[in-house]
Each structure stands twice: as structure tokens, then as C-alpha cells.
Amino acid sequence: MSVILELRGRVIKGGRAEGEALVSSQPISFYGGVDPDTGIIKEKGHELEGKSIAGKVLVFPHGKGSTVGSYIIYRLKKKGVAPNAIINQRCEPIVAVGAIISDIPTVDCVDTSKFKSGDWIKIEGDKIIVERR
Amino acid sequence: MYLSKEEERMLVGELGYAAQKAMEILVALGKIYDAEKLVPITSAHISGVSYANVGEDGLEFLEELASDGRVLVQTTLNPAGMDLDKWSLMGIDREFAENQLRVIDVYRRMGVKITCTCTPYLVGNEPRMGDHIAWSESSAVVYANSVIGAKTNRESGISALAAAITGRTPFYGLHLKENRQPTVEVRVPQPNGEFEFACLGMIVGRLVGDGIPLFRGILHAEPDELKALGAALASVGGVPMFHVDGITPEAGEYVDRSMERLTVTESDIKSVKEEYASEVDPDLIFLGCPHLSLMELKRIASFLAGKNVRKKLWLCCSKSVKLEADKLGITQVIEAAGGTVVCDTCPIVAPVKDLGVTAVATNSAKGAWYSRNLNNLCVRLLSTEECLREATK
Description:
CATH superfamily of chain A: Phosphohistidine domain
Strand order of the largest sheet of chain B: 12-11-10-13-14
Largest interface: A-B, 20 and 18 residues
Mean pLDDT of chain B: 96
Shape of chain A: globular
CATH class of the largest domain in chain B: Alpha Beta
Order of helices and strands of chain A: EEEHEHEHEEE
Radius of gyration of chain B: 21 Å
Oligomer: heterodimer
Strand content of chain A: 25-35%
CATH class of chain A: Alpha Beta
Structural class of chain B: alpha/beta
Number of helices of chain B: 15
Helix content of chain B: 40-55%
Number of strands of chain A: 8
Distance between the termini of chain A: 6 Å
Low-confidence stretches of chain B: none
Helix content of chain A: 10-25%
CATH topology of the largest domain in chain B: Aconitase, domain 3
Number of domains of chain A: 1
Order of helices and strands of chain B: HHEEHEHHEHHEEHEHEEHEHEHHEEHEH
Distance between the termini of chain B: 61 Å
Radius of gyration of chain A: 13 Å
CATH architecture of the largest domain in chain B: 2-Layer Sandwich
Low-confidence stretches of chain A: none
Shape of chain B: globular
């Protein structure tokens, strides 16, 4: 039986998307921290090291690192290995700009500790629907 | 966030693709920083020009924007990875040069002035006091806020471009008077020349992080000296603005406030040099970080007149300053001595390692900091005169 949780956040980049959640309690640096051609997290010691963000709903507290990270998100999208959507606790400019130029639905002002990797997440505007099996 | 009718139209795409993307970016930033509205700007300055930083992905995005995007206000461009005309003399390879010229071309199509300098205020992009502007390039931001009294946040290349395309920027941060107040008072001895101002900036940048210092004890300061001070404060720290009691335009409003106080001594200033005292002999000596003014070039020329430069000496400035120097015969004096006036670029954004450079000397605290931390070079920080003596030794 699936549990359904419904949350509301703040829209950074509007749209509809769904996918399996990949959740990190640590911030993510796209520049240097994610392989732009494969979507695999490569930051040494990161809790998601070795995991692919491609096609996922990527949940993490906020971005970090160089502003070049926005262009890395754009490249992930062009290569077809970007996340389907992003959920942040508090979005910052690197992720916001990256999501906008890459058309990746993004919502913030959400308690990201409520999510678990493997949840099925649907995003519609500011609405987030979580199914947990 | 409140949006006007025209801003709403941009956001829904009625005014084209680029205006829509740009407006989406500004609205998102406005939300993140709790801006209540957007404000019109009179000027923009864009960083993110070197192909080494923009890359193929950045270029593809810029191409998309240029499909129908045009800047609405005076907009200038930061240095590129090479001299746009004399790249081959610099030793830049053809592939890098062609890619760099594609980046320049896409900005040109959007109506950006191809100034390729970190000193837009020396090449005609001169906002007035109180103007809202959107500048990236940390040394230009700190100069605009502190010395000119125009108002800008520390924008990224993309957010400054978005502001230029829409003619607006989110109203938060340094656009609000209450965020322009000093956070710490710094008592200092009078520094002497650009070099000591730069060293002072390095010390205070480290101490105050992204705070706003109010300097006391500086009785006189040339614009070039304030340029050197600001560049160091903004790169070593994250300082967006500073005040100098009796000198900068907004300092007077705050001189009677009590606040946290720091003291910097002459020996503190002298000690900065010791941190950047690489044993390795420099194979490149550069002046002009930020880009040299005409006055600075003139002084360098009078030192070099009749001497022989024996090492690679780059004097970096904008093309428009070089043109003035050409007219006054300054460039000719420098070149006759064996120095090179390099335009449109600097050793921070040019691929200097590919040019065989491993060790540098400079009078710039910002240049020293980035040469070490970004480009992994051995660095000597010397006064302007010591740099020139080293080059002609």
C-alpha cells in the first residue's frame, strides 16, 4: 500500500515532472561535484558519490560551489542526464539559474528531511505529491 | 514579488524568448533574496567571457539568448582569455582563439560593447551616484559602490546579462540604503601608492569577509589606489563596498556611528609581501590587475624609458586606454624598452600555463591571490617599482 504525502513549496522554476527521489542531506556542487556527461555524483566522500542523478527528482538542502555550476546543469540537460526535477530546502542562485536555463521544474522552501530515496515524487507547480511503497 | 505590466509580459514570453528567460532568472533571484520588486537599471557589466570559463555549454546557452535577446542599457564586457587582435603574438593556439571569438561574437550580437576590461568605469561605462546598476566582476562592483556611489549587488555573469536584457534588477541587498552601512571600522596608517593600498585590502579582506569596512586614517587616495584597495578586498574577502572617511561619497553619513573596531599597522601591511615571496624567479611579470589607467601606464613608461626589459613584461589594460596611450607616445616608449602592452585580457583569465608560465611577479594583491589559488603558479608580490626593476634587471 502506498502512503501519500502532499506538500507545498515555493516555485523557482515552474512545471510538471515526476520521478524516483534521490535524497541527499548534504549540499551539492554541480561544478566539480557532478560528472556533466553521465550525471554521476563524483565528489569524494559525498553521501551520493557514485549515484546517478539522471531522471531522478533530486532532493538536497541547497547548492554550493562555483557559479559555473549553472552551466553544468544546462549541460546535463543537453546530454539527457539531468534530474527531472529539483527540490531544495533553500534554493540559491547557482541552482536557480541552472534550473531556469535548463527548464527543470524546481521547488524550494520544503523540509527536505521528509523525503527518502526511492519515494515516487510528482511535482505540479508548487505542489509536491509523495508516494512511498 | 510585485511585477509591473511590462515585466509580467516579459515573464510570460510576450516580449520574446530571451526576455522571458532573463525575467525568470531575475524573479527567481528576487524570491531567493526576498526582493519586493525589480528596479530599472542604467548600466550593466558582464563577466564570464573567457572561453576557458564559459565553455561549450555556456556558449550554447548564450547562443539561445542571442536568438532574440538585445541589451536595453549600456552594457560592457569583462576581459577575455586573450588579446582579441594579437592573440597569435601572445602564443595562444588557433582553436582556443576561434572559440574565444565565438563567445565575443555572441555578446556583440546582443548589443554588448566589446570593451573586454575589468575597469568599465575607465572606458565610458560611468554610472552616476545613486544609479541602480547590475555589474559582475567583483573589483568593478566594489569600485562602483564605494567610489562612484552607484548601487549594485555582486552579480554573476548570467544575472548581470539577465538584468541587461530586461533593463531591471531585483531590489535587494546593496540597492537598499540600510545594507550600505559600514559593519566595521578599520583604523589604518596612510598607505603609499597602489601597492600598499592593495596589501591593505588583502589584510582587511581576510578580516572582514563579506562585511563593509569604514577606513579611518587615510588622508589622501587617488582613484587608482582605491581601485587597487577594492580589488583586493573583493577577491580575498567578499567585500561588496567600503567607505573611506573624508574621501568616498557615502562615508560622511556614518562617521559618528559606533561599531566594531579593528586596527591595522604598518608592519601588518609590510608582512603581506612575505606571504608571497616565491623563491622561483618569475618568467612573467605583470601589472594591470585591475586593468591599468592611462596615468598608471604613463608612470610605467617614464620608468622604462631608455631601459631594457629582459623578461616577459605584460602591462594589461583596455584597448581604449591603449589607444589613448598610443596617441601620447606612451605605448611606443614601453615597446621600445621591450615591454608588452596587452589588451582585452590578463594573466588571470588567459591560459598562461599553456604559454609555459610557471612563476609570476605582480604588484596586485588580487592578481597574486588568483595566480596562486586558481592558476597554481609560484608568486612574488612586489611593489610597482620592484616589478619593473625585476623586469629590467
